[in-house]
Amino acid sequence: MTRVLVVDDEPQILRALSIMLKARSYDVVVATNGKQALAAAAQSSPDIVVLDLGLPDLDGLDVIRGLRGWSKVPIVVLSGRSQGVSKVDALDAGADDYVTKPFNVDELLARLRAVTRRAPTGSEEVRAVIGDVRIELPGRRLSARVPDRGSPDVRLTPTEWQLLEVLIRNPGRLVTQREMLRSIDRADVGDQSHYLRQFMNQLRRKLEPDPARPRYLMTEPGMGYRFQP
Fold it and tell me: Which residue segments constitute the domains of the chain, with CATH numbers given?
């Protein structure tokens, strides 16, 4: 059973989330402030954390940083702070996704499922499929999804591979523009997001079945990108 730590200081939201998650066979642990959240995370070892940023004692960003000091548990922020800066700050602090209140239950559940489907990292084999192309990160190999169709006529540049790798290693997770830029070994890129748009457009033209209507390499406007398996 998947254990979820829900952190929110609003009793109605805490109760509603607890009922909704338990009805879907989640094991739910609750906390109403930041200190309780950090203690509960250490004691209960949750599989996912759903975290509000506006807590009475600690800022939610500090809770994220505190958790990231010792844990890789997926964190989904559920907050009324809708400004883009707040979202980017939370993601850069270590959150895996961000849902704005008021929220859609089905969307929240989908985000929770997505962050639990994280690919292994490091030197382990990581594979993904985009349309008719199978991608293998070790060795940076591309092959046809259906073996008898032969090799795809696709070639990726080193920069495109670097961007694709950071997305595939974080399936379903929003990867911020800042994270994407840090993954590129190019001195001329700096922190300019328009380079990302160019590279992502190139990747879509090479990999997406319909680049004008991407299905796998998604844009989160003003925030970053997401690989949707």
Answer: 3-115 (3.40.50.2300), 127-227 (1.10.10.10)
φ, ψ for residue 37, nearest 5 deg: -60, -45
- Residue of 217, 204, 207, 211 lying closest to 131 (CA atoms): 207
Q: Average model confidence (pLDDT) for the chain?
A: 85
Task: Name the nearest CA neighbour of 141 among 122, 117, 164.
Answer: 164
Chain-centroid distance of CA 23 in Å reads 25
Cβ(164)–Cβ(156) below 8 Å: yes
Asked if residue 75 lies in contact with residue 64, where contact means CB atoms within 8 angstroms, the answer is yes
Distance (Å, whole) CA 71 – CA 69: 6
What is the value of pTM for the model shown?
0.59
- Range with top average pLDDT, 85-89, 135-139, 170-174, 211-215: 211-215
Tell me the DSSP string of 39-108: HHHHHH--SEEEE-SB-SSSBHHHHHHHHHTT----EEEEES---HHHHHHHHHHT-SEEEESS--HHHH
List of residues 6+ apart from 61 with CB closer than 8 A: 53, 89, 90, 93
DSSP one-letter code for 198 = H
Tens digit of each residue's pLDDT (9 = 90 or more) over 1-14: 789 999 999 999 99
Residue 122 φ/ψ, nearest 5 degrees: 80, -140
What's the pLDDT tens digit per position in 150-197? 557 788 988 899 899 889 888 888 888 888 887 776 555 555 778 888
